[in-house]
C-alpha cells in the first residue's frame, strides 16, 4: 500500500474555540490545543491532496500547514461550518489549472450548488446516470468544480485510495461518514445516531482508528454524547478513538474521563494509521 498522511486541520465546533466574547476557562486557556479552528480533515495519498469539508477557516488552515493546493474534496453535510469555505477552493483551481472534483450526498451538493452556483462546471447525478453542465457566466467564466453525488453506501476510488461512504443521522438531516477500508480508518463528524447498516459496516471493517465528533460531553439532539460513543464502540470495537468537532465545553487539559484508547484531537495533529 502507498504511504498515506492523515492530518486534522481543524477540530472545533461550529463557532470554533475560543468563542468571541466568552470568558470560560477553555476559551481563555493558554494551551494551544484548546485553540480550535472549524472541523476539517486532510488526507494525502499517492500525491493527491484530499480535503474532508471546507469550513470557514480553510484558507488559514492551508497556510498554517503549508498545503499548496487541494485536488479532491469529500463533504460530510451541508451545514455552514463544513461548506462555507468552498469559495477558497478557487485558489486550488488557479494552482492546478484544472477543475477540482467534489463529492457528497444529494442533500449536500444540492445545497452547495444553490449557494455557490458560480463555482460549478457540472454535477454528476450518478444514480440517474446523467451529468448536468452549467454555462459560464460573465462574472465567473472559469468554473472551478465538478460535483459528484454519492449514494449512502457507495464505494469509490480516488487515485488508488479505496473509500466508502456510510450514513449518519445528524439532527434533522443525514451526514456522511467516510471509511478507508485498507487502512481500517473511519471518520464520523456531526452525528447523533448511526443506522444499523452503518454500525455493521464499521464493525466488519475492524477499525484501528475512528475519528468521531464530541461536541459536548452530554450530547444533544444533533450531536452524540460521550456515553453513546462508548456504547457504539462496544459494538464496533475500534482500537482507538480520536475526538473532533469539540466545543468550548471540552477542555484538552481534562482527560480524566477518557479511557486508555481515547484521545482529544487538536489542530495540526498527524494521525498514524
Element pattern in H and E? EEEHEHHEHEEEEEEEHEHEE
User: How much strand?
Assistant: 25-35%
Q: Give the N-to-C terminal Cα separation.
A: 12 Å
Low-confidence stretches: none
> CATH-wise, what's the superfamily?
Ribonuclease Z/Hydroxyacylglutathione hydrolase-like
Give structural notes.
The protein has 273 residues and is α/β, with parallel strands linked by helices. It has one domain (4-264): Metallo-beta-lactamase, Chain A (4-Layer Sandwich). Helix content is 18%, strand content 29%. It contains 6 helices and 15 strands. The protein has helices spanning 58-64, 80-83, 90-96, 106-115, 196-204, 226-236; strands at residues 4-10, 40-45, 48-52, 72-74, 100-104, 120-125, 130-133, 145-149, 155-158, 161-170, 173-180, 185-188, 209-213, 240-244, 262-264. A hairpin with a 4-residue loop joins strand 6 (120-125) and strand 7 (130-133). It starts with a strand and ends in a 9-residue tail after the last strand.
Amino acid at each position: 500500500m502507498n504511504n498515506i498522511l492523515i492530518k486534522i486541520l481543524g477540530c472545533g465546533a461550529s463557532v470554533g474555540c475560543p468563542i468571541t466574547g466568552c470568558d470560560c476557562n477553555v476559551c481563555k486557556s493558554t494551551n494551544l490545543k484548546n485553540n480550535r479552528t472549524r472541523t476539517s480533515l486532510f488526507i494525502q495519498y499517492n500525491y493527491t491532496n484530499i480535503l474532508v469539508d471546507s469550513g470557514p477557516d480553510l484558507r488559514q488552515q492551508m497556510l498554517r500547514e503549508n498545503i499548496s493546493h487541494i485536488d479532491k474534496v469529500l463533504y460530510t453535510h451541508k451545514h455552514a461550518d463544513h461548506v462555507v469555505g468552498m469559495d477558497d477552493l478557487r485558489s486550488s483551481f488557479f494552482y492546478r489549472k484544472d477543475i477540482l472534483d467534489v463529492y457528497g450526498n444529494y442533500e449536500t451538493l444540492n445545497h452547495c450548488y444553490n449557494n455557490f452556483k458560480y463555482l460549478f462546471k457540472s454535477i454528476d447525478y450518478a444514480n440517474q446516470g446523467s451529468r448536468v453542465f452549467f454555462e459560464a457566466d460573465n462574472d465567473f467564466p472559469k468554473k472551478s468544480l465538478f460535483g459528484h453525488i454519492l449514494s449512502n453506501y457507495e464505494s469509490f476510488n480516488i487515485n488508488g485510495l479505496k473509500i466508502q461512504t456510510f450514513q449518519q443521522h445528524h439532527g434533522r438531516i443525514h451526514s456522511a461518514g467516510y471509511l478507508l477500508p485498507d487502512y481500517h480508518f473511519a471518520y464520523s463528524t456531526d452525528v447523533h445516531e448511526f443506522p444499523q447498516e452503518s454500525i455493521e459496516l464499521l464493525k466488519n471493517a475492524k477499525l484501528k482508528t475512528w475519528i468521531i465528533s464530541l461536541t459536548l460531553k452530554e450530547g444533544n439532539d444533533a450531536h452524540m454524547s460521550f456515553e453513546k460513543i462508548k456504547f457504539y464502540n462496544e459494538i464496533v470495537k475500534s482500537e482507538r478513538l480520536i475526538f473532533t468537532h469539540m466545543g468550548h465545553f471540552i477542555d484538552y487539559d481534562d482527560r480524566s474521563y477518557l479511557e486508555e484508547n481515547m484521545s482529544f484531537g487538536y489542530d495540526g495533529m498527524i494521525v498514524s494509521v
